[in-house]
Write a structure and sequence with these properties.
Layout: E1 3-10, E2 13-14, H1 17-28, E3 46-53, E4 57-64, E5 73-78, H2 91-97, E6 105-110, E7 113-117, E8 121-126, E9 129-133, H3 141-148, E10 153-155, E11 167-171, E12 183-185, E13 189-194
Parallel strand pairs: 5-6, 5-13, 9-10
Antiparallel strand pairs: 1-2, 1-3, 3-4, 6-7, 8-9, 8-11, 11-12
Length: 198
């Protein structure tokens, strides 16, 4: 089983790397390099760095990054958690993503409780504040950082409580809270169908 850390690099600066190293260690005891050496050709703009590992680091690659546009979500409700570590094998997530219909992505719930999208943690916003699901599919590094800074709070959020919020932010290692291209108005979250994992 191989795992991956997806790390944001901005103008040659490696972002939140301590969180990535900690998650890798928590995953399987892996120790990532103390620092990432960014090649000169990737020291301008935003770059995605992928570190693939198991007990050792297999390779590190750098890819120029463009923000996705996600403004609508199709809810899919599954019976159990299935992606609690950041595996390179995303087959089940891709299967669910294929159920998005005319929406940009899926919003995955587990037994009626909101978890994640196919590639992001989520943060709901209303006049009470910013709330992320108590139990996501995957505990992302951006989510961990925002929790540590008390910018967001955890809360159980069920499908039938979505209407209590105004909008939904998608976050991950590459995408910051409040990024305009990944904010979803709750009226763009489409009612769900129950789809069992095979």
């Amino acid at each position: 089983m191989k795992y991956v850390e997806t790390i944001k690099i901005v103008d040659g600066e490696v972002m939140n790397y301590a969180y990535h190293r900690q998650r890798a260690f928590n995953t399987n005891g892996a120790i990532l390099p103390h620092f990432i050496t960014v090649p000169d050709e990737y020291k301008k703009g935003m770059v995605k760095c992928r570190v693939v590992y198991d007990s050792i680091v297999h390779y590190i690659e750098f890819i120029p990054y463009t923000f996705p546009t996600i403004h609508s979500l199709q809810i899919v409700d599954v019976p159990h958690y299935f992606y609690e570590n950041k595996y390179t094998d995303r087959q089940e997530l891709q299967r669910l993503f294929a159920k998005r219909g005319n929406c940009d992505d899926v919003l995955i719930a587990v037994n009626g409780k909101i978890a994640d999208t196919s590639f992001c943690n989520v943060v709901f916003e209303n006049n009470e504040g910013l709330f992320t699901p108590q139990r996501p599919l995957l505990k992302g590094v951006k989510r961990a950082m925002l929790l540590d800074k008390n910018i967001i709070t955890t809360r159980d959020i069920s499908i039938d409580q979505i209407g209590e919020y105004d909008r939904l932010h998608l976050i991950n290692a590459m995408i910051d809270l409040g990024n305009p291209s990944t904010i979803v108005d709750v009226n763009k979250i489409i009612s769900f169908e129950f789809r069992k994992l095979v």
